[in-house]
Amino acid sequence: MNRQNTRKTRKTLGIIGFGAFGQLIGLHLHAYFELIAYDPSPIPADVAAEFGVSSGPLNVVSQSDIVVIASPVATFERVVTSIAAVCRPGAIIVDVGSVKTQPSEIMKRLLPDDVNIIATHPLFGPQSAKDGVRGLKIAICPIQGKLHSRFAAFLRKELGLEVIITTPDEHDRDAAIVQGLTHLIAKVLLSMEPLPSRMTTKSFDLLSEGISMVQNDAPEVFEAIEKANPYAEDVRRRFFNLAAKLNAELEE
């Protein structure tokens, strides 16, 4: 296939996976790019219009100037393989998953050498971004190419995000605690419902607010955080061992 680049006055941005986070991308980026989205389930016309996107097949979306992969971990490698067959030279390929080591390796291995690869993790979701994304954080891991600085500058200047440049390994080490424990504690506390809602302390209210931000996440998000992160198991084991030790001390 002849891989020739084309010049356009307005960059195209393709979104692969138009669930809750894909829609959040559409909400905040339709003013800057021509958006086209693909999802395995047909995107209703009214939903596409609401978020300022047009819908298209995977091979067409994969030819965008910027391609954002917002698909589940289970289908990630298959999606990257499809993108690799048709993507433009010089394109920016971005993922937005909660784990970075494995997806980064897959993208580096499968995508062509003439594309830019940037692994990212927006440290927020639709719930925590309900009032806007300005001031929220995003982790960026440069994997291939030289455009990550321009990409980061756009996120800072136009969206007001706090950009954290890191590596996939450093990201996963921190995320195993930051996200792993948050979702783990939320799961346990939700299993103890009904929780008090009237006679509460400020600290408990803050804890409840944190739970509300993650309790509606798709099940595959929790699976990825706890199983795909290579450091999550150790953090989880340490947490439960320390909890068991504290419980034993209290029972004495």
Keywords:
membrane, 49% helix, 8-stranded mixed sheet, 10 helices, Prephenate dehydrogenase, alpha/beta, 8 strands, Rossmann fold
Description of the molecule:
- The protein has 252 residues and is of the alpha/beta class.
- It has helices at 20-29, 45-50, 58-61, 73-86, 101-110, 148-159, 168-191, 202-214, 219-228, 232-251, and strands at residues 12-16, 34-38, 53-55, 66-69, 92-95, 116-122, 137-144, 162-165.
- It has ten helices and eight strands.
- The chain has an eight-stranded mixed beta sheet with strand order 3-2-1-4-5-6-7-8, with helices on both faces.
- The termini are far apart.
Layout of helices and strands:
Layout (H helix, E strand, L loop, with lengths): L11 E5 L3 H10 L4 E5 L6 H6 L2 E3 L2 H4 L4 E4 L3 H14 L5 E4 L5 H10 L5 E7 L14 E8 L3 H12 L2 E4 L2 H24 L10 H13 L4 H10 L3 H20 L1
Parallel strand pairs: 1-2, 1-4, 2-3, 4-5, 5-6, 7-8
Antiparallel strand pairs: 6-7
Helix pairs in contact: 4-5, 7-10
Q: Number of helical runs?
A: 10
Average pLDDT level: 93
Known CATH architecture of the largest domain: 3-Layer(aba) Sandwich
Q: State the fourth-level CATH superfamily of the largest domain.
A: NAD(P)-binding Rossmann-like Domain
Q: How much of the polypeptide forms β-strand, as a percent range? A: 15-25%
What's the main sheet like? 8 strands, mixed
CATH-assigned fold name of the largest domain? Rossmann fold
User: According to CATH, what is the class of the largest domain?
Assistant: Alpha Beta
E-strand count: 8
Structural class: alpha/beta
Q: Which spans have pLDDT < 50 for at least 5 consecutive residues?
A: 1-7
Shape: globular
Organism: Sedimentitalea nanhaiensis
Keywords: Membrane, Oxidoreductase, Transmembrane, Transmembrane helix
Protein name: Prephenate dehydrogenase
InterPro entries: 6-PGluconate_DH-like_C_sf, NAD(P)-bd_dom_sf, PDH_C, PDH_N, Preph/Arog_dehydrog, Prephen_DH
